[in-house]
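Recall that a protein's primary structure is simply its ordered list of amino acids. Everything else, from secondary elements to tertiary packing, is in principle encoded there. The following example makes that idea concrete.
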Amino acid sequence: MTNHRMRDELDTALGGLIFSPSMQERVRARCGAEPPPRRVPLRLTRRAAVVLAVCAALAATALAVGPTLWGIIQGDLGAKTPYATEVPALCEDQGIRLEVRSALFDNKIAQLYFSLQDLTGDRLDGDTQLCFGLENQQEEGNDEMPWNSSSVRQLSYESESHTALFVLTLNGWSTKNRLPLQFSGDWILSGYRTSRDYVMAREDGLSAVPLPSAAADNGTTVLLPEPARVAAWEAMDPDTRPVFPITAVGFASDGKLHVRARISLEGVIWSDIKARVYASEEAGCGVYYGDDENVTQTVVEDGIDYRFDSYGPSDLNRLMQISVEGDYSVHSAPVEGVWAVNIPFEAIPSRDIVIPGELRLTTWVKGETIRADRISLSPLSMTLYCSDLQRDNWVKMPNYQALSVSVYLSDGTAVAPVYVAGNTPWAAWEFSEPIDVDSVTSITIEDQTIPVP
């Protein structure tokens, strides 16, 4: 009976073209072997080699049909693969399963690989967007931001199993915080597309002189299309031109700022299109968006006319940019739900090196410097921490990207890491291949060498 269930599970997995790490673990368990450790080892032990040999034929079959999710993750991680950990976390809502597959927490860069699978239909595709949130409770005494920025990139979509794979990257991740990270989403949109067209008020010669206008069916004043703008759009490459182009922009006969956009929703399942004004509070000072409450939309023959009641000819010198921006889908409407999982935190071990003496680094301002205090080294990256960042009422802006950095190993090899991220008090560089931290003898930043005991 056990063998039948096992075969059914494997047939199901292979039919979906996914021989996942969790499935491999179940196969190992049924073969009488112990599950592998959570961290993928650098080298296969004899026990692991025997266990993997049992599953080799099945894994090879799955790979012959198509790459597994884990294979795609490995391809994205590259040389960092041995330092990733499997994260057993999943949840389901609205017939869509969110499953965390793997995570990597380095000094200042964290990567989280997760999949979305539609269990009931075909609401995902190769252009799927997830509106997500992140929460991380601060530990007492930790005043570092948990992260500075985040981004999500889709890696693949497998149509037969309706599974999309993503990687979430956190820049500026704080390894001081050992509490779990909560990852959540509240809507999913496939077939995602975006369009943006804009006019620069000064550069494009926006004038206070009223443009040709007319009355719409409801009596509202609207702009008429400007033939030159229409002709310019029609001459553009259809594959790259804005989908919702501006066909007229300026002041109408009613004395208000208008922007008219051609909007065709043929083939569009869902859309969210807005017109915005970027303006200064006074000429040349600050930038802000026009309030949606002060925008009146009127349907016209070829799209929509947007009237901005807050702006008249007297505001011309404040205007900077007028845009029409739209998110839309050609596949489905957003799926709203609640998907939330907790991600345990397991940092890659690193070594802290206090910089002796006074190591000063220049900033964008000539003659201005900051102090380099310490370096954190992991097999994958180097993070530099600095201080003396305040000058009068200003925060100094280090030019980390311009720094020349070399790491020297005991065999005489010089490794040049690549800058990947930074904020005012820190910057991070990654190695193209993992290094042995214990073999580092010195680090050179610009022309200053730091010995590593």
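The longest strand covers residues 351-362. Helices lie at 2-15, 21-30, 46-65, 69-77, 227-234.
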